[in-house]
């Protein structure tokens, strides 16, 4: 039996993700943020979908890992790895548009890890923009001209029984990274982005092409209902109140009164009940609806695993039927 699989990441710059002086070109229209990639690459070959997205300038780079195993009588007898990463370009608009090709780095493919009935493949890919980014850094040579390095390290495990597991084993702190499964369906998202850390530190040997990779926290994808509610919270003409939560602190505590709903914009929150962790939520999650519908008391603690940024909304600003449906889809405490 011949089993094939793939994992794909798309890396893109969300709105307002760039900080400091480097935000200016985005603010005046010389550079651009990216619209979110599609939720599925299904319906066509993944490679073709990536080609079309790159032609439309929809991402900064993509990492596409493919692999196969041969199985006889439940034993893995052979395996192989392929896939071709893809890097985009940078368009600068200053009177006229100038497109500068990005600089891809050599793809890193370690020897696969072979276990009893499974094979695990890894692939690191990325590069940097061709546009210079002069800046001070905190280690020799203390000044950098070339742009920082962006990358993802994908992991794909193929099992003899046909199961496939994908993961984001590592990634640069910037930009946002979305992970797609073998069917081209969005499966996980990087939990946070940190432009300042990336801008100051991701150069030279501080990448998979040097002596280190950066751990990546990847979270489950939000539901279609949460996406619908997020549009309502962030709708045009109204700017919601923003809150920042420091890593290690809590957004809400179990048992306290609450009359607000939260949209997690960046970071990872842990859902805890009576000290037990039930879930880890990432960008796009809408949380806090049970207190609004069930007497005003928080049913869980939301603790920041990373620095977090949330948008705050009140019940009267949202569709009550949507809040009821959201409550029924969560029910983490009841499942426990």
Keywords:
seven-stranded antiparallel β-sheet; globular; five-stranded antiparallel β-sheet; Jelly Rolls; alpha+beta; 336 residues; 24 strands
Structure commentary:
This protein is of the alpha+beta class. The protein folds into 2 domains: 2-220, no CATH class; 224-335, Sandwich (Jelly Rolls), CATH 2.60.120. It contains 7 helices and 24 strands. The chain has helices at residues 24-27, 46-55, 195-201, 224-233, 289-293, 320-330, 332-335, and strands at residues 2-12, 61-72, 75-82, 86-87, 89-94, 96-101, 103-104, 113-115, 118-128, 135-136, 143-144, 150-159, 164-171, 176-180, 186-190, 218-220, 241-245, 250-252, 260-266, 269-273, 276-281, 286-287, 301-304, 308-314. The strands form 6 sheets. Strands 1, 2, 3, 4, 14, 15 and 16 form a 7-stranded antiparallel beta sheet that branches. The longest helix is centred in the last third of the chain and has 11 residues, at 320-330.
